[in-house]
């Protein structure tokens, strides 16, 4: 596609700064210079120069010529000598010097006339240090690599939190914290993956488009496949497919996956999020708790160098050692000041809710109400890593019944800083009981629970071939980063879903 001057109709509606910048773009074109060339010469990164010449003395000349590229974030034009600060993608900065004696009168005049803060420029010249000891490139030539038509935010007027999310590309330019997160996230995922590989788990892929939504209690996104003329669901969890793998003999499997749940958006919830989900034949929720501790502590060490992590607000969180374990009903009992068990009457639970201003949904059974009481009264206090054990059967339809406590399942949730990080199960492997649980879920759906799971006949058929005892894990990637950094979920996801601008 050819590069053309800006049409007048577009120019009329632009802010003055953008009109000026478009005028400079047009000037480049008129002079036969491409403001957006398909390539520029770069022989070395700014970071490599910084590393290579870290000890260069003041006023030194290396005699080495290099070609560098970077975004202009500062300019100072003073007569026959101009200065600029270039920044590359990782945030490394380097001074660029342009002397009339080196680049020539015309090239220096073009620099002053055409270059703005935010432009990406290329320059070739000798690596030196200035008289003040600043490592620099003394340019012998320069060229435009990408003309910025919009000005960058200024220091005294940064982007709002909302616009930082909407315009993450600007956020990455302006804030080192945003760039750090963009690098820490894949570093953490590499760490998680490496732990799983070391433990001989097989990484697999499961469908994102599913005929039935299952594996979690959540409202799904629905779409339609035109060729097959059927409704499909975006995956809410990979659980039922990963368990099929275990039936087939893949005894340790995991997936780092994207899940989609049609739910609210807040500081810890996103409709699209990342999970590590894993299943281990002949394990249980105790072995999975040990695995989870290892995953989190190793990730902290690999990414931040310590199991004591410092948050954005300056506070510290110690993820090391053995983590606290507490029973769900034990925690509720402590919060209400009375003994609460799985056998506590429903109306008694309702009375606790009324006393603590928890609004009760009529579709909740006693197990669901107990969980809601726990979330309402306890979770905010769980700052240090805490495993909350043994949940009601009613709310855990895919979990094995507790070996010693009737009415409960062998399930834990992990909380850090008051937020659920993940969950671990001793999995339900009896196909007859699983069918009964699915039927119970169907009844809940009929009563209006749009998060209830449907009956999945193919999954039951897989179970009927013999599903070995196993432990299962679901660990939130985004939320783990929240725990490690102290930031909200919209900071840990590079491009979170946001409502379209008006």
Automatic annotation (TrEMBL):
Mg(2+) 2 binds at residue 420. SUPFAM superfamilies: Class II aaRS and biotin synthetases (SSF55681), Nucleic acid-binding proteins (SSF50249). Its EC number is 6.1.1.6. Binds 3 Mg(2+) ions per subunit. Belongs to the class-II aminoacyl-tRNA synthetase family. The gene is lysS. The keyword Ligase applies. NCBIfam families: lysS_bact, PRK00484.1. InterPro entries: Aa-tRNA-synt_II, aa-tRNA-synth_II, aa-tRNA-synth_II/BPL/LPL, Lys-tRNA-ligase_II, Lys-tRNA-ligase_II_N, Lys-tRNA-synth_II_C, NA-bd_OB-fold, NA-bd_OB_tRNA. Residues 188-500 form the Aminoacyl-transfer RNA synthetases class-II family profile domain. GO terms for biological process: lysyl-tRNA aminoacylation. It holds the Pfam family tRNA-synt_2. It is found in: Cytoplasm. One of its GO terms (cellular component) is cytosol. This is Lysine--tRNA ligase.
């Amino acid at each position: 596609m050819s590069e053309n001057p800006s049409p007048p109709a577009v120019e009329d509606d632009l802010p003055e700064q953008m009109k000026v910048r478009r005028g400079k773009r047009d000037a480049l074109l008129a002079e036969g210079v491409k403001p957006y060339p398909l390539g520029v010469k770069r022989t070395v990164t700014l970071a490599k120069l910084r590393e290579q010449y870290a000890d260069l003395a003041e006023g030194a000349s290396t005699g080495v010529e290099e070609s560098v590229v970077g975004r202009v974030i500062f300019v100072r034009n003073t007569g026959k000598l101009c200065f600029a600060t270039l920044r590359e993608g990782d945030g490394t900065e380097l001074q660029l010097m342009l002397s009339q004696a080196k680049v020539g009168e015309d090239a220096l005049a073009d620099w002053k006339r055409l270059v703005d803060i935010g432009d990406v420029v290329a320059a070739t010249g000798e690596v030196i240090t200035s008289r003040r000891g600043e490592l620099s490139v003394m340019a012998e030539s320069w060229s435009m690599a990408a003309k910025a038509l919009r000005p960058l935010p200024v220091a005294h007027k940064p982007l709002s939190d909302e616009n930082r999310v909407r315009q993450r590309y600007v956020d990455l330019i302006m804030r080192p914290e945003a760039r750090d997160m963009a690098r820490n996230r894949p570093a953490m995922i590499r760490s998680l993956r490496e732990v799983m590989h070391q433990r001989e788990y097989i990484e697999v892929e499961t469908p994102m488009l599913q005929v039935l939504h299952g594996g979690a209690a959540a409202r799904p996104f629905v779409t339609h496949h035109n060729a097959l003329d059927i409704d499909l669901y975006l995956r809410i969890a990979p659980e039922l497919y990963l368990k099929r793998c275990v039936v087939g003999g893949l005894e340790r499997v995991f997936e780092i996956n994207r899940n989609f749940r049609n739910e609210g958006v807040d500081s810890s919830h996103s409709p699209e999020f990342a999970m590590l989900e894993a299943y281990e034949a002949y394990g249980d929720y105790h072995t999975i708790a040990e695995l989870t501790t290892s995953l989190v502590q190793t990730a902290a060490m690999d990414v931040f160098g310590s199991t004591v992590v410092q948050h954005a607000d300056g506070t510290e969180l110690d993820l090391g050692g053995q983590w606290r374990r507490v029973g769900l009903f034990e925690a509720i009992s402590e919060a209400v000041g009375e003994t609460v068990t799985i056998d506590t009457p429903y109306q008694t639970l309702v009375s606790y809710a009324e006393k603590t201003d928890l609004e009760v949904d009529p579709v909740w059974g006693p197990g669901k109400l107990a969980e809601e009481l726990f979330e309402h009264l306890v979770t905010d206090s769980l700052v240090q890593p805490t495993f909350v054990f043994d949940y009601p059967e009613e709310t855990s339809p895919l979990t094995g019944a507790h070996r010693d406590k009737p009415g409960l399942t062998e399930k834990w949730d992990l909380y850090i800083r008051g937020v659920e990080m993940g969950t671990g199960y001793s999995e339900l492997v009896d196909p007859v009981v699983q069918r009964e649980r699915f039927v119970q879920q169907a009844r809940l759906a009929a009563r209006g629970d749009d998060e209830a799971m449907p009956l999945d006949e193919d999954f039951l058929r897989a179970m009927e071939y013999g599903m070995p005892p196993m432990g299962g894990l679901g660990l939130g990637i985004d939320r783990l980063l929240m725990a490690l950094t102290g930031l909200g979920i919209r900071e840990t996801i590079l491009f979170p879903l946001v409502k379209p601008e008006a």
